[in-house]
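User: Can you fold this complex?
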Amino acid sequence: MVGLRALSVEAPLTGGGFAGRAFVVADGEGAVHVCGLDGAVSQRKLHEGAILAMTTDEKTGAIFTAGDDGRALRTLAGGEPEVLHDGSKWVDTIACSPRGAVAWSAGKTIHLRQRGAEQAVPVAAPSSVSDLTFSADGRFLGAAVYGGALIVPLADPSEAYLLGWQGSHLTVGFSPDGRFCVTAMLENALHVWRIDKPEDKHGRMGGYPAKPLSFCWTADGRYLATAGAEVLVMWPFTGPDGPIGQKAGVYPAEQSLQARTVASRPNSRQIAVGYVDGSVALFDRKTSAFLPIAEPHEAGAVNGLCFSADGRWLGFTRERGVAGLAELGKG
Amino acid sequence: MDMQTDKTPVTVLTGYLGAGKTTLLNRILSEDHGRKYAVIVNEFGEVGIDNELVVDADEEIFEMNNGCICCTVRGDLIRILSGLMKRAGGFDGIIVETTGLADPAPVAQTFFVDDDIAERLKLDAIVTVADARHLTDELGRAPEAQEQIAFGDIVLVNKTDLVGEDELAAIEARIRQINPTAKIVRTTRCAVPLDAILGQSAFDLDRILEDAPDFLHQHGHDHAHHRHDDVNRHDAHVTSFSLVTDTPLDPEKFFPWMQMIAQEFGIDLLRMKGILAFKDDPKRYVAQAVHMMLEGDHQRPWREDEARVSRMVFIGRNLPRDIIEDGFLKCRAAQPAMA
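Assistant: Here's the predicted assembly.
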């Protein structure tokens, strides 16, 4: 059975993630709400305005927040926040790598702080940055920008280069094997590049009725699951060129409802899907069945969804302020 | 159509260099209206008020990857508006100031292109501030100035204390040539009641051409109104014309034609507004376009006391009026033969 706890916040929710033994959500009033897996709930005000982006490092328990007060913070439970950045422009995005690097962006500048480094180094982006993501192997930082994905090699950030494709790119991700980069675009499509041959091997994945901003690879890395449609869309990453020239598989749920977010459950064949009406389901690739996790809610679309590293907990946020934490057991 | 009243209205302030945008902005912010506005500016520091949320923008113009070169949006605006929507409590309104040389189209198109923006926010009106002393000269040499007038739902003719009445009348006539549907408001130091520029719902389909001066009262016979008398004038970059017919239109002819016009002439078509009477259709159909972006919907039924006249206004850069008029008239439904 699924145990589900709800957390009501009187402000829009802007991010969520697991930090230590807690699910943490960020809100539009500058606070983070810490929901311990043991049931304890606490909150901390970190920013003056809205928290625009948040990410967490589950292992160390660090919470990284980016605010429209121009600050980027790293906060550990019980400790004083460490100010990573304090400027006049909004800090729009923030990301951390499982290997200890952290990056954030303000306007057209990306700031990258390598593991163990005291200072961040600036990396110029061709436009303002919509999203930052590190590859799982820690080799690259990807930035979604106008005109493509900017790839920043951590070994030499001054050698950043663009995987180009005309248009506005909004979110970015890397396949688990680090061979492919994928972006979601303003034009309701995804774009994929084979990182070693981006000129020849790249392609558009289109046909979506809405922006497929949220996408994730299955735990085995064989498929890319995406939101943005009334069916769960899965692109194959089984061949040498990934989805280029391939067709997507589509998996309809019982009711037609637009998927807003997806997250892959670690070490399993399951994918959590968050919908525009606030409901959450768990899709099982073995049976192609959707197991309901959370009911529709007036707090609106599920705009954030993530699993704990052990796959036992699923946390989610809804746009207008009600988060949920589901205990799924061992799966 | 727009049943959702909880969308946050966005007002765009445009106008040529030195026209008085910042004065107007300061006026909006300092007036004791009890409302909460977020202001997006491009030249940080010029706005002298700090009790409101003022956000610095970079005016990034993004082309869409859909094969349409006039399909541009303000990328920074999408980012900033999305960010503002994350704030608790929200705002009573958002005001976007553009730079003096900016084309207003990408700002307007942002609200048509991005579904996530359109879901939460609505474009309320484009307010163009013009300097009465310099407008004639600017219109003569700067296409940007003409386009800003063309896009305006409201044109504030500012600094009227510095010119005479004859000159003002000439300026207004010149504005009317470019934009026959705008509301013209004379001001000094941008002293204008805020309810004359905010809360206009100028892009609501229901409001289309409702306030258009001397436009609704045209007689219903087939003709085009030339707002422009001398096409050979060297400054005739942006012009306008209106088309009227009291013969009902055939929707099966009209929609493909309108699509074709938007495709063919979209680059030069700045704004289009229309109220249309279709054959055997009790309801008015309203339509508008910004470049290639077309939108339209059925509206209220025609009233008994109202002539069922179809009217369209086109504002654009050297649009071929004869071709458009000819196509429009061909959309008239066949009349039943006399028995």
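DSSP finds no helices and 30 strands in chain A. Chain A has a mean pLDDT of 95.
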